[in-house]
Amino acid sequence: MHYNTIFYQLQTFFPRHHFEKIVRAHKGDRYTKNFSCWQQFLTMLYAQASEKDSIRDIIICLNIHKKKWYHLGLKNLTRSNLSYANSKRPYQIYEEFFYVFLEKCKTIIPKHKFKFKNPLYALDSTTVDLCLSLFEWAKFRQRKGGLKIHTLLELGGNIPSFIVITEAKTHDVKAVQNIQFPISSDSIIVMDRGYIDFKWLKNLDNSGVFWISRAKSNLTYSLIGQLKFKKNTGVLNDNIILLTGVKSAKNYSDKIRLIEYYDKETETKYLFLTNNFKLSAYTISQIYKARWQVELFFKWIKQNLKIKTFLGISRNAVLSQIWIAMIYYLLLIYIKHQTKYNHSLLDLNRIIKESLFMQLNLIDLLSIDKKDITPLKNFEQLELPWDL
């Protein structure tokens, strides 16, 4: 039976009509005769999936499979076309398409493993270093450039529900304090101390959103009550407090819960702040422990996506590449859960990388058991189709 290429099957997961609608809104294909936004998107998606480091590599490797371009809609692919498109086509096209595809992914991802039903998110940021001599627009320090990716990660499915990309020098809380997150009023956001700003936390509280964070060492407060907690769970105290700092008390006058917890594994004592008085103190501590998933997310995308080396030096080219990288991450998540792939996301990424232009059904490809793949022990096992 004949099948189209794996790469062709991957692009069918995307809602093409939504993409074209976004392109028309931004006039992305205006005055374009040869190389459309869709072709740019597929080419950059190929660069992500195959982990290509340069435009020259992309063009050479795609030209090897030129006879299979027809069904993909690729044509007129040159270094100058791709470079110009990355530099000039609005990156907002791919930013908006990320959120369109995100809605499709949300329908199939699993929920978190806690017993409560509230949506659970982790908020954090990671810095992408850039060479200041090339990326002059991204000045961070005197001799260093960079961008910061602020991410609201939905725990359970581990998908980024909201992303803000700023200059690296932007403080964490300043990047998000004026943003209305697209989440329900009963959601829980867990974050580190970098996002502690009581005026912003009060706005979350007024919106019905629960927040959990570690307390800063200079926190000043008065104790107004205590809550019961289970012993032998690591919880040392569960207190109700009021802030007494001049500025903090003005910005957050309501009561806050302060939990003291001792982690035996790390032999570390933690102080957690939250506006949630319903969940147990132990559950609060475990929610904060689950925040580590966002750190693993950052580690994964930096190691497996092309967001540390860039194909262009303009701000638009860099942001376009980052947003397309995040779309590819969503695609991997979608395929993993839609096909019920049992192995890791890393295995899935590697399989797709090596099979983009194979003419095989995607489901059959993902059904291959890793145990059935035997590595070559020596060159005698390799049968060549011609005589030397």
Shape: elongated
Spans where pLDDT lies below 50 across 5 or more residues: 373-388
Percent strand equals 15-25%
Strand count, sense and barrel status of the largest sheet are: 10 strands, mixed
- The SSE order reads HHHHHHEEEEHEHEEEHEEHHHHH
Radius of gyration: 24 Å
Q: Strand tally, please?
A: 10
**First-residue to last-residue Cα separation:** 33 Å
Separate helix tally: 14
Mean pLDDT: 90
Helix percentage: 25-40%
Structural category is alpha+beta
Provide an overview of this structure:
Strands 1, 2, 3, 4, 5, 6, 7, 8, 9 and 10 form a ten-stranded mixed sheet that branches. It is built from 14 helices and ten strands. The chain has 388 residues and is an alpha+beta fold. Helix 3 crosses helix 12 and helix 6 runs parallel beside helix 12. The two termini are 33 Å apart.
Produce the secondary structure layout.
Blueprint (H helix, E strand, L loop, with lengths): L5 H6 L4 H11 L10 H14 L4 H10 L14 H10 L3 H15 L13 E11 L8 E3 L2 E11 L4 E9 L4 H5 L11 E4 L6 H9 L3 E5 L6 E6 L8 E9 L2 H6 L4 E8 L4 E7 L6 H10 L1 H13 L10 H24 L6 H10 L7 H5 L22
